UniProtKB/TrEMBL annotation:
GO molecular function: 3'-5' DNA helicase activity; ATP binding; DNA binding; hydrolase activity
Lineage, top ranks: Bacteria, Bacillati, Actinomycetota, Actinomycetes, Streptosporangiales
Domain UvrD-like helicase ATP-binding intervals: 186-530
Source organism (scientific name): Nonomuraea fuscirosea
Keyword S-adenosyl-L-methionine: no
UniProt keyword annotation of ATP-binding present: yes
SUPFAM superfamilies the UniProt entry points to: P-loop containing nucleoside triphosphate hydrolases (SSF52540)
Domain of life where this protein originates: Bacteria
Residues bound to ATP: G207, A208, P209, G210, T211, G212, K213, T214
GO biological process: recombinational repair
Protein known as: DNA helicase IV
Key words of the record: ATP-binding, Helicase, Hydrolase, Nucleotide-binding
Gene3D superfamilies hit by this protein: P-loop containing nucleotide triphosphate hydrolases (3.40.50.300)
């Protein structure tokens, strides 16, 4: 008997009845589950918020009920369940379990579908003949639209071999159109290990292009939200991706899994959309973690040694705090609090001293008097003079425009920033004031660091960081602040690092993120790029990431690669349009307009950095291709892509690994030597 049976292709010899009967019975279970979901929704709709006592509680309850009703919507095109486990029994759980996107139960609370994230569903992803996990048979379902049309059985109890799943193969061979889809029906065992890692655990995933890192990160977010619903509803989960076009591409995955309350943003979205152009050499120094102690010193250098004491007049009395006492208070606070709470504490401590004086004179002031004194003019004046009110922008402005001040900060921090590096940091053309300064992306991380030195940044419960290899140490520190009381999922590929500060080690990434305990793991099997294309792109690996092993692909994709000298982009695009699926024409950024003119006869759009367009034929600037995929990819002039930036070869590697079905490389100039070797 074959290990897999795919109805209706397989002759009706299955032990538990002919496939068509089985199919009919599974279709009946789907119909019953749909009806039950409808009833659950009707029940939720019938609940009234009137029971809540006051108006505010009613509003909150109504909003919760509305969310519940929305969550119970049946999307006819989305399979309600995609798997079934027949279990050996011996526990309290049902013998047969249907695994799907959400729980569905009948009127008597009998489970008809169990959420894929429930502990019992784990076996659907992990059970194997070697370790059946109490499962006798795993059944996978194939759908066409919303209709259940096929099933595939894997007997697990007999210790045999399981061949490749046709349903998985069909899913990954499916022509791509539109945004990214969830992979909940076909998560692979090594991916599932990452998805179900505990909330306390920070996981860092190195993976070649198309190994499912993004998909895994999104599913892990959904898993954690299900497993720790209340805790994470309070603290929050956030996904950080490389650009907004990418976010738009992945935006429907979590909602399809029922999770709508996850913030998806970019580093710029989080730290501020500052984008003043900057020399990469300068940005590299600014991105270096050695900036952190320099910023800290720069901030604290603003504290002025108190020369005068405080005189507080009340009625006929003058209460004095001596200069040395003020110095003692400042010294005791310095370095023990963040900057802004330190200011407030200084005012309170001074006020306290005044109160002590009042008491010594026989008065009995209470706490309100202390607050009033802390807010009084003489105290405010002294605090402003000694511990001035500052913004991150003011401090950074001073640091980047005043070489002496920078030198003092470097010295105070005992930093080894060299004179050359310090010179790079100083603006060539200084701005008139911090208000008119134009900040760069690298400055945004410095401002954020200063902001945290002044006021603690709140931490989220969990952070998913995609394309993490591209982040500078200072950006990682900024993200680390946002998960310091939580954990992170860090995803990336050392070979796809395209920034001048791209990392070469995940241990270093975890260290700067403040998650040293994080575990580095690897995904090695590619689900996107055909083998022939991946092997071609992998010729670049010895030059860009020599320590990495060549990636492997699940998809043979014979005939998927065409390399053509002098070929026409319009012809290649026209040929791709005659096939099924999306088409990405990936071009050096400088050639976007030229290629758009060459394609004037064909309906097309240019990918906008701020949004993913729904267009079959898209021109994609090479610098925006990261994380995206297209059924057919046409890459124009690799030599120019390489020449455009310092890590141009890595950019080319990214660009060559976006194809799902075919890659056409068009070139007039000589190809990079690594590709022809
Ligand atoms: N288990 C799976 N079942 C079906 N499809 C999968 C599976 N894992 C990944 N895929 C598909 O493979 C493609 C690549 O996945 P994804 O974008 O997550 O990879 P990646 O590792 O982030 O790639 P890159 O490094 O190039 O950004 C996607 O279309 C995704 O849906």
């Amino acid at each position: 008997m074959p290990a897999h049976q795919l109805a209706p292709d397989i002759p009706p010899d299955a032990p538990d009845g002919a496939p068509t009967d089985v199919l009919a019975s599974e279709q009946a279970h789907l119909a019953e589950s749909r009806a039950a979901l409808k009833a659950m929704r009707a029940h939720a709709q019938s609940l009234s918020a009137d029971a809540a006592g006051d108006w505010v509680s009613q509003q909150i309850l109504q909003s919760l009920l509305d969310q519940r009703v929305a969550a119970l919507a049946d999307h006819p095109d989305t399979p309600l369940f995609f798997g079934r486990l027949d279990r050996a029994g011996g526990d309290d759980l049902p013998g047969t379990i249907y695994v799907g996107r959400r729980h569905v139960h009948d009127g008597g609370s009998k489970p008809l579908v169990i959420d894929w994230r429930a502990p019992v569903s784990r076996a659907f992803y992990q059970a194997s003949p070697a370790d059946p996990m109490g499962v006798v048979r795993r059944r996978r379902f194939g759908y066409h639209g919303g209709a259940l049309t096929a099933f595939e059985d894997e007997p697990l109890g007999e210790g045999g071999e399981i061949g490749p799943s046709k349903i998985l193969t069909e899913e990954i061979e499916r022509p791509r159109t539109g945004p990214m889809r969830d992979i909940v029906a076909t998560i692979q065992p090594d991916q599932d290990e990452i998805v179900r890692a505990t909330l306390a655990q920070t996981v860092c995933v190195q993976g070649a292009p198309g190994t499912g890192k993004t998909a895994v990160g999104l599913h892990r977010a959904a898993y954690l939200l299900f497993t720790h619903r209340e805790r994470l509803a309070r603290s929050g989960v956030m996904i950080v991706g490389p650009n907004r076009a990418f976010l738009s591409y992945i935006s429907s995955v979590l909602p399809a899994l029922g999770e709508v309350k996850v913030d998806q943003t970019t580093v710029a979205g989080l730290l501020g959309e500052h984008a003043a152009p900057e020399d990469p050499l300068v940005a590299a120094v600014k991105g270096d973690a050695r900036m952190a102690p320099v910023l800290e010193s720069a901030l604290w250098l603003h504290i002025v040694k108190p020369e005068d004491g405080l005189v507080f007049t009340k009625g006929a009395y003058r209460h004095r705090v001596a200069d040395y006492e003020v110095r003692e208070i400042v010294a005791s606070l310095r370095g023990t609090t963040r900057y802004n709470p330190g200011r407030a504490a200084l005012a309170q401590r001074l006020a306290h001293m005044v109160l002590v004086r009042m008491e010594q004179r026989g008065e009995s002031p209470d706490d309100r008097v202390q607050d009033a004194v802390a807010r009084s003019k003489p105290v405010k004046q002294l605090v402003d003079a000694v511990w001035p009110k500052l913004t991150p922008e003011q401090v950074l402005f001073r640091l980047l425009s005043d070489p002496d001040f920078l030198g003092r900060a470097v010295k105070a921090a005992k930093s080894d920033l060299s004179p050359e590096e310090q010179e790079l940091l100083i603006w060539r053309k200084p701005y008139r004031s911090w208000k008119s300064a134009k900040w760069s992306a690298a400055d945004a991380a410095l401002l954020d660091e200063l902001g945290d030195l002044m006021e603690r940044t709140p931490s989220l419960g969990h952070l998913v960081v995609d394309e993490a290899q591209d982040l500078s140490e200072m950006q990682l520190r900024a993200l680390g602040r946002r998960c310091r009381n939580g954990s992170a999922t860090v995803l990336g590929d050392l070979a796809q690092g395209t920034t001048p500060w791209s990392t070469t080690s995940w241990e270093s990434v975890l260290r700067h993120l403040g998650q040293r305990e994080g575990e580095v793991t690897e995904l090695t099997l590619g689900f996107r790029v055909p083998r022939e294309v991946l092997d071609y792109a992998a010729r670049l690996l010895p030059s860009i990431a020599p320590a990495l092993a060549a990636p492997r692909s699940l998809r043979p994709g014979l005939g998927s690669l065409t390399v053509s000298k002098g070929g026409s982009v319009a012809r290649a695009a026209g040929e791709a349009l005659a096939k099924e699926g999306s088409i990405g024409v990936i071009v050096p950024d400088a050639l976007v307009d030229e290629v758009s003119r060459a394609l004037a006869e064909l309906p097309h759009a240019v990918l906008d950095p701020d949004a993913a367009q729904e267009h079959r034929l898209l021109i994609v600037p090479a610098t925006l291709a990261k994380g995206l995929e297209y059924d057919h990819v046409i890459v124009v002039e690799p030599a120019d892509i390489v020449a455009a930036e310092p890590r141009g070869l890595a950019r080319l590697y990214v660009v060559l690994t976006r194809a799902v079905t075919s890659l056409t490389v068009l070139h007039d100039k000589a190809l990079p030597a690594q590709l022809t070797a």
